[in-house]
Specification:
This protein is 27% helix and 28% strand. It has 107 residues and is of the alpha+beta class. The chain has 2 helices and 7 strands, in the order ββαβββββα. The longest helix is centred in the first third of the chain and has 17 residues, at 18-34. It starts with a strand and ends in a 5-residue tail after the last helix. The chain is globular.
Length: 107
Amino acid sequence: MFQDGFPASGFGNTIQTGESVTAHLEALAERLREEGWYAQVIVSEGQAALLRVVNPLAPPLNDDLSLRQDQAGLWWFCWSFGDRIAHVDNLDIAAARITQVLGYPER
């Protein structure tokens, strides 16, 4: 179904409303919390919902993630600078990439 975080053909727009965007971000937040990360969905009036992720061992390693739709209508978890992390239907790859990038290197 997925190859390197990208959906196989046949997958489409899985988000219909603002509540659904928040639900997808909250699902990823819960997945990250299970691994001990600080993750909180932030919803501000007039702004798109964000997911603040913080490495608990190194708080300066953090980012505010969002959901964005591509030109084909597919929705993606994205870094604050806009690069894609993974398709919204693939929490495992999204969580793995986030913890890899924001992870604290072993000494």
